[in-house]
Design brief:
alpha/beta, seven-stranded mixed β-sheet, five-stranded mixed β-sheet, binds zinc ion
Length: 304
């Protein structure tokens, strides 16, 4: 085994020193969190509506660098009944300046998951770090012809004429996001199964539209045998527990995104269910506690 943990495109996944996958169960439902890699993004995107000095102090308190952060990029595979469901698909090759992401296919293979075994894809929204993995060359052909892709109808509609007036992104991102979403809708048009507000993909696997981050942004709620877990997509970022009112640069409607985040965190704290989210540090399995007016992040204990 190599002790070099950097990426080698010519080397198969099992050689990676860190396997970047984490399995857990929610009642009868199997859940696997898989890392697509990390995204190197400006720290300012964590809260573009706050005083830079306040933001810098928070980053310092978290032992994080002041300028560029490595954002986790978590994807989830769920098995329930006879369905194998891929929830989001990572970045793929959509943005060449983010070379540390786009590892999903290799890491699925290393986990023993064949793309042809996936019966359903659920997309929380159409930002490129969530759907780009499905546009990697050769992926569409390896997926089964009867694959169902579940996406909120409002999300598909939004990307016909997307509004970027409220976001705060580095140069190049809006164009890449527009291009990727449009390309995705073209490539996967015949496999789309749009839903209005919610859809039960498999027993105990419910996708629910929240809006906010994007108009069709959705979360996936798992429930089985008294256990519950929510995959929150981009409704919750690391800073969102302590500062739920900090606007993330990718939020197309930051006020509504804040309302969605607070409502969801309150609910998760009240019913004590597990939370997994795209950009929380891998494997991101955690709980939410109420802490005065805000929230506290409680990482799950490793249990292997
Ligand atoms: Zn994202």
């Amino acid at each position: 085994m190599s002790l070099d943990n950097t990426s080698h495109p010519d080397r198969p996944g099992p050689d990676e020193l860190v396997p970047s996958r984490y399995a857990l169960r929610v009642g009868e439902i199997d859940v696997l969190v898989v890392s697509d890699g990390v995204l190197s993004l400006p720290g300012a995107m964590l809260g573009h509506n706050v005083d830079p000095a306040v933001r810098a102090a928070w980053l310092n308190d978290m032992f994080l660098p002041p300028d560029v952060l490595e954002w986790a990029l978590n994807v989830v595979v769920v098995r329930s009944g006879d369905r194998t469901i891929l929830i989001d698909a990572g970045m793929g090759m959509e943005f060449p300046d983010l070379p540390r992401s786009g590892k999903l296919v290799r890491r699925l293979e290393a986990s023993g998951i064949d793309l042809a075994s996936v019966t359903d894809v659920v997309l929380t929204h159409l930002h490129m770090d969530h759907c780009g993995g499905l546009l990697v060359e050769g992926v569409r052909d390896r997926l089964r012809p009867d694959l169902r892709v579940h996406l909120a109808a409002a999300e598909a509609k939004f990307w016909e004429a997307p509004d970027f007036s409220r976001v705060s992104m580095p140069p190049g991102f809006p164009d890449a996001l527009r291009r990727t979403a449009k390309n995705f809708l073209k490539e996967y048009h015949s496999r789309l199964r749009p839903f209005v507000n919610e859809y039960e993909v498999a027993p105990g696997v419910l996708v629910t539209r929240t809006g906010g981050h994007t108009p069709g942004h959705s979360v996936v709620r798992l429930a089985s045998g008294g256990d519950r877990l929510t995959f929150a997509g981009d409704a919750v970022f690391q800073v969102g527990f302590e500062h739920p009112d900090w606007y993330n640069g990718f939020e197309h409607d930051p006020e509504e995104a804040t309302r969605v985040r607070v409502r969801l965190l309150r609910e998760l704290a009240a019913n004590r269910e597990s939370l997994v989210a795209t950009h929380l540090s891998f494997p991101s399995v955690c709980h939410v506690a109420v802490d005065g007016d805000v929230f506290r992040w409680v990482p799950a204990f490793w249990d292997y």
